[in-house]
Amino acid sequence: MKNKVKTNDLVYFLSAVLGIAAIFLLLAPGITKSITVAGHTTSDSTSGFALMFGTGDGAKFNVMMFIALVCSIVGVVGVILSFVLKNKKIGKFIAFVGFIAAGVLYFMFRAFYPMCMENGKQVIATAEALGFKFKLGAGAIVAGVLSLFVRTWNCRVRVYEEIILISAVYRQ
Question: How far apart are CA 78 and CA 63, in angstroms?
Fold first, then answer.
């Protein structure tokens, strides 16, 4: 039983660390813009935080991208609560909802990108007609994967602990 408690503590700690890493990955590119002219490709990227809070190039605060950040923070708080509280179900549920929502929202950064600017859909449509390509950036992809991985990892560790417990019972 003592080994199970140490494993849970380690899993909760690592989950919180990975959740925080997902938040810091918003400093990496959230959207990558590229265009090919005369056989040469030029690309530019904007960080997740710059997309959320607006940049000097006319972008404004984006609520949906900010909700992704809030969901990541809620997931980390849920992990910490499940580590601290006696009733771990509340913290696990909060972490589950927070990380799943954050993971999905990180992967939707490309869909939320037009909301960053005035007449965003027309601007994006015009830019795409001129040959620009807008892709999800590496930071948003890795943050989404980490958020979903943290949640899946916690579930797998729980199943693994149950298998160990059942095998220990059968050995006796």
Answer: 22
10 Å Cβ neighbour count for 71?
21
Counting every residue written for the chain, the total comes to 172
pTM over 0.90: no
DSSP state letters, 14-79: HHHHHHHHHHHGGGSEEEEEEEEETTEEEEEEEEHHHHHH--TTS----HHHHHHHHHHHHHHHHH
CB 48 within 8 A of CB 109: yes
- Quote the CA–CA distance of 66 and 146 in Å, as a whole number: 17
Angle (CA) 87 105 109, round 5°: 155
What are the structure tokens assigned to 21, written together?
A: 């890493």
| pLDDT at residue 169, as a whole number | 56
Q: Which residues of the chain have pLDDT under 70?
A: 1-8, 56-58, 115-116, 119, 152-172
So what's the pLDDT on residue 70?
A: 92
Neighbours of 142 (CB within 10 A): 16
